[in-house]
Write a structure and sequence with these properties.
Layout (H helix, E strand, L loop, with lengths): L4 E7 L4 H12 L4 E7 L2 H8 L8 H17 L15 H9 L4 H12 L8 H10 L5 H5 L2 H17 L6 E4 L2 E4 L4 H9 L7 H5 L14
Parallel strand pairs: 1-2
Antiparallel strand pairs: 1-3, 3-4
Helix pairs in contact: 1-5, 2-8, 4-8
GO molecular function: 2-hydroxychromene-2-carboxylate isomerase activity; glutathione peroxidase activity; glutathione transferase activity
Family: Belongs to the GST superfamily. NadH family.
Catalytic activity: 2-hydroxychromene-2-carboxylate = (3E)-4-(2-hydroxyphenyl)-2-oxobut-3-enoate
């Protein structure tokens, strides 16, 4: 029986931050039993009324620079694909068809952010699926059960309060973003740190001035 703490890792392979977090989770023993769960980032953003950082032109360049710096600082080889962001739904369905196996998640992330492979290309996706032991990739990822599984993953993530990727869920607590890994370590070492009166009060703060669109 595993003595590790169960944790859900919600991700979309379009996210370089998800790639970085996955690499650290795979290489650092935090005592977690990670269950990777592919979700569609665009659907999360649409549900919560958000936009991705790459959709804001000046933020896009800053985001990519930050990711490259974080990768270099953490000794992670990162090579962005020529086009980003890209349509990731087919890559997500490939992961679903492969039961989001750890080796499949490794391979998809490596294909995108280490090798710069274009997974929007059907032939390239077919090759990657074949490398992972899946035949008839095009037909499999177009199947109703695969599409429904991805939809169900995403809807369940939204119901849990997931609004972006990567998000690590440990028990009832969510940790969003690569930069929360130190927070995760402290949480695992001393959960009571996150149960103080001041921590509890944060969820009850009044919302001040809402942003309103100009009429």
């Amino acid at each position: 029986m595993s003595t590790k703490t169960p944790a859900n890792f919600y991700f979309d392979p379009v996210s370089p931050f998800a790639f970085l977090m996955w690499k650290r989770l795979r290489e650092d023993d935090l005592g977690l039993e990670i269950r990777p769960i592919p979700v569609l980032l665009g659907a999360l953003l649409n549900h919560w009324g958000l936009i991705g950082p790459a959709e804001v032109p000046p933020k896009r360049a800053q985001t990519y620079r930050m990711c490259q710096w974080l990768a270099d600082r953490n000794g992670i080889a990162l090579h962005f694909p020529d086009t980003h962001p890209f349509r990731s739904v087919e890559a997500l369905r490939l992961l679903i068809a492969l039961d989001a196996r750890t080796d499949a998640v490794d391979a998809v992330f490596e294909a995108v952010f280490a090798k710069g492979r274009d997974l929007t290309d059907g032939a390239e996706l077919e090759r990657l699926g074949g490398e992972l032991g899946l035949s008839n990739v095009h037909d499999r990822i177009a199947s109703a059960d695969v599409k429904e599984a991805l939809r169900a993953n995403t809807e369940a993530a939204i119901a849990r309060g997931v609004f972006g990727v990567p998000t690590l869920a440990i028990g009832e607590d969510l940790f969003w973003g690569f930069d929360t890994l130190d927070m995760v370590r402290d949480y695992l070492a001393d959960p009571k740190m996150f149960q103080t009166a001041e921590m509890q009060r944060l969820g009850t703060l009044d919302y001040g001035v809402p942003r309103r669109a100009e009429s």
